[in-house]
Amino acid sequence: MANKHESIYEHLSSITGLKFKAHLKGTDIQFKDLYKMHNLTSGIEDYLVLIEGSKSFRFTNLDGFIDEMIFLVKDLIGELNNEFRELNRRQENDAIVDEVAMFERHEYIGYTGERLLKLLNVLREKRKNQ
Length: 130
Prior knowledge:
Blueprint: H1 2-16, H2 21-24, E1 31-38, E2 45-51, E3 55-59, H3 62-93, H4 99-128
Antiparallel strand pairs: 1-2, 2-3
Helix pairs in contact: 3-4
């Protein structure tokens, strides 16, 4: 799976001119598939990116790619925030709690959230410099 992710990243990097591989590490964003589509009536080409976890986005140019990646990252951060709130609720309300599992999940959320925030900042900076 990692080889396919790497191959898709290389194609995306070639299409967009962006180098963001280091910023993807630790974000849990795994590219699943990449499709190039050509509208025969309008002549417009666009791309469809499938992400592990049933997520996808379409773009036609660099600005569209950056905007869609920002939306994806914000969505993933929102999911982590929801999971964090749910873990805290369970920790407060459940009679029996696996403290080690809770700690590990909190660590995962914190690390992944931090990496996603860094990627979000990089993408916002690239959009601002366009």
